[in-house]
Design a protein that fits this description.
Helices cover 36% and strands 22% of the residues. The protein is α/β, with parallel strands linked by helices. The protein folds into two domains: 21-92 and 404-439, Urease, subunit C, domain 1 (Roll), CATH 2.30.40; 93-393, Metal-dependent hydrolases (TIM Barrel), CATH 3.20.20. The strands form three sheets. A seven-stranded mixed beta sheet has the order 3-2-1-4-13-14-15, with helices on one face. Helix 7 (268-277) packs parallel to helix 8 (290-299).
Length: 440
């Protein structure tokens, strides 16, 4: 064999070795001991960032994080294979206004505040959290709830430790109310002397002390009652519940602790006062004026409309299921609510999805279709319950969309909600952080 032939063989061998090495480098690495590796085949995949429906997409998940995505991604050795090839995959859903300790079908809210112990509320809360997760909500925010201690924080911590299945949680433990406001026990007699709640806050010194106590016990958010409500007694949705100085101190103290703050607000006076004070989001925003919507868009204040709850209240009212006083307030705010949502959408207010479940928890998923009936953009409605919510929480780098490097929060349905939003109510698969919690 001459030298030229030998040289050619050596060069050919080196080239083949290089190609083999490149192929190995491009192929997904097999799972090693102690690792969790999953290969998911999606018939369709909803890209909520680009508003695109992609076909025949594969997702590789390593230890709960998306490692690779695309039609060309192959299944590595030892990976658990999950076949969703006849399903529509989307990011884990998010509910930014959920209450896990309320069931207004059993009694009025004031009565529930004294009838149930913290232990009773915790058990109900865990059951409701598992219902939310089963519906596809992998992340939720609790903007104040009907519980006298800090059970929501305990449940969040237990879920984070892996002791129970439940959504990822960000919590404002209590809804802080002025005396006589939405959150005070206004339906009880003045001489009843019942120790109803720990959430009555009046004056700037009391505000600072209360917020520091909330943070001491683990609050992620602060929630205040900036106006009266609908399912409460003797408070007015049209009146700003706090003074300008009090609103300012609420926002100032929350942000000084690097936390966020939101306001329940129906009437425009309370909405505008909270926006001007620098609140991060507004809940309901039912009677919003155009100038306030424009201000929210300018300041980047998020809006969580909560539409389905009013649909439910009106339906219950027709059946005689709520008081005449509450029904009249519901009728009054319902006429304007849809207009406020359409106006906010028109002026570019950032919106996130929240259900406000004072109704049975298994109906929370209906908020998507309720929003779609008011906003003619199914992609935007889905963004509200995914990437927009993640942005509001400050978590858009880790959740909210299906992208490499983000948590593997994946939900699947048989039919595409972009075609018809009601399809989202038929969830067949739920994964949170790589853990399959529903597969039927």
């Amino acid at each position: 064999m001459d030298n030229k032939t030998t040289l050619k063989k050596k060069l050919l061998g080196s080239a083949l070795a290089l190609l083999a090495t490149s192929a190995l480098a491009a192929a997904p690495a097999p799972a090693t001991t102690g690792e969790q590796l999953q290969y998911i085949q999606c018939g369709k995949l909803l890209d909520v960032v680009k508003k695109k429906t992609l076909s025949n997409q594969n997702i590789l998940v390593r230890n709960g994080v998306i490692e690779a995505m695309g039609a060309e991604v192959k299944a590595p050795v030892n990976a658990e294979q999950i076949d969703l090839s006849n399903q529509v995959c989307m990011p884990g859903l998010m509910d930014m206004h959920t209450h896990i300790f309320i069931d207004s079908t059993k009694s009025n809210l004031d009565a529930q505040g004294i009838m149930n112990s913290s232990a009773d509320q915790t058990l109900m809360g865990l059951r409701n959290l598992q219902s939310l997760l089963n519906q596809g909500f992998t992340t939720i925010r609790i903007p104040g709830d009907l519980e006298k201690a800090y059970a929501s924080i305990s449940l969040k911590n237990a879920i984070n430790r892996g002791e129970f299945d439940g959504p990822r949680m960000l919590v404002a433990p209590h809804a802080l109310s002025p005396t006589g406001g939405h959150g005070d026990a206004n339906s009880f007699a003045a001489d009843s002397h019942l120790p109803i709640a720990i959430n009555i806050v009046d004056g700037v010194d009391d505000i600072r002390r209360t917020l520091r106590t909330e943070f001491k016990y683990g609050a992620d958010w602060i929630k205040i009652m900036a106006t009266g409500g609908v399912m409460s007694q003797h408070d007015d949705p049209n009146i700003a519940a706090y003074s300008e100085e009090e609103f300012r101190v609420f926002a100032e103290e929350a942000h000084r602790h690097n936390k966020k703050i939101t306001a329940h607000a129906h009437g425009d006076a309370g909405i505008r006062a909270a926006v001007e004070a620098g609140f991060d989001s507004i809940e309901h925003g039912t009677l919003m004026e155009k100038s306030t919507a424009k201000l929210m868009a300018k300041k980047g204040t998020y809006y969580v409309p909560t539409l389905y709850v009013l649909d439910w209240i009106l339906e219950m009212g027709q059946k005689g299921g709520i008081t005449a006083n509450n029904l009249e307030k519901a009728k009054m705010v319902a006429k304007k609510h849809a207009d406020s949502v359409a106006m906010a959408y028109k002026y570019g207010v950032k919106m996130a999805l929240g259900s406000d479940p004072i109704f049975p928890m298994d109906q929370a998923i209906r908020e998507f279709d309720a929003m779609a009936k008011r906003i003619p953009d199914n992609w935007y409605v889905l963004q509200m319950g995914t990437i927009n919510s993640a942005e509001m929480l400050g978590l858009k780098d880790t959740i909210g969309s299906l992208e490499v490097g983000k948590q593997a929060d994946i939900v699947a349905t048989a039919k595409n909600p972009i075609d018809e939003m009601k399809n989202i109510e038929s969830v067949s698969f739920v994964m949170k952080g790589g853990k399959v919690v529903r597969a039927n």
